[in-house]
Design brief:
The protein is of the alpha/beta class.
């Protein structure tokens, strides 16, 4: 959802990114290199960055994990939270179906609930109730709930993505081409060049006026 974050930042939104691991089990890049890349990307985006100390490939939905993420929620007090989708039946070659990604989605879902509880003794700061939770990394088997036109922000997205220099080597150096292709596919679904997709577990409020607005060319 990188291009969406660029779009949000250009629209005046405050953006904070929380990363659970430093990728120490990954094939490309060292933990120190990965963290330096995260910080460079966040700086270029103009957002804040919170790096937690979960172990790569050992991210599990536990009480402690929920409390740690809930603490970050209380710190930044977001109105909208985004997380990887929690249930993905993809194969072992599908990056969006990485067990850490799915566990993160489940942790975030519970953490938002915990962040509201006034008497949860392990949590400091004032309780916070985020208004919305949306998921990215939509499984190939699911139609998205929302699709965001990011056509005007793709070049800036790529420049930020290239801050993750070690990760550009993924898929034989074709990862950015693949990611563009995915966004082009979602773009076709809404008549745009590129788009990013999201899922929502809650019902969305129907507003007739939004459906009656003239579609941009």
């Amino acid at each position: 959802m990188g291009a969406s974050m660029v779009k949000f930042a250009h629209g005046g939104a405050s953006v904070a990114v929380c990363v659970l691991t430093r990728g120490e089990a990954g094939t490309f890049g060292t933990p120190d290199q990965r963290e330096a890349e995260m910080r460079a990307a966040s700086e270029r985006l103009g957002g804040e960055l919170e790096v937690l100390s979960f172990r790569d490939c050992q991210v599990v939905d536990t009480y402690d994990a929920r409390v740690r993420v809930a603490s970050v929620v209380r710190k930044f007090r977001p109105k909208i939270v985004f997380a990887p989708y929690h249930t993905n039946p993809g194969s072992h070659t599908d990056g969006s179906a990485h067990p850490d990604h799915m566990a993160t989605g489940a942790i975030v879902r519970s953490a938002l609930r915990y962040a509201r509880f006034a008497r949860l003794k392990e949590l400091a700061r004032e309780p916070w109730n985020a208004s919305h939770l949306l998921y990215y990394m939509v499984p190939l088997s699911r139609a998205p709930t929302l699709v965001n036109d990011v056509s005007s922000f793709m070049e800036e997205w790529e420049s930020i993505a290239r801050c993750h220099e070690s990760q550009i080597k993924i898929r034989e150096g074709k990862i950015l081409q693949i990611l563009r292709g995915i966004r082009a596919g979602y773009g076709v679904s809404i008549g745009a060049a590129y788009a990013e997709a999201f899922l929502n577990d809650d019902p969305l409020v129907f507003d007739l006026s939004s459906f009656l607005q003239a579609k941009k060319a």
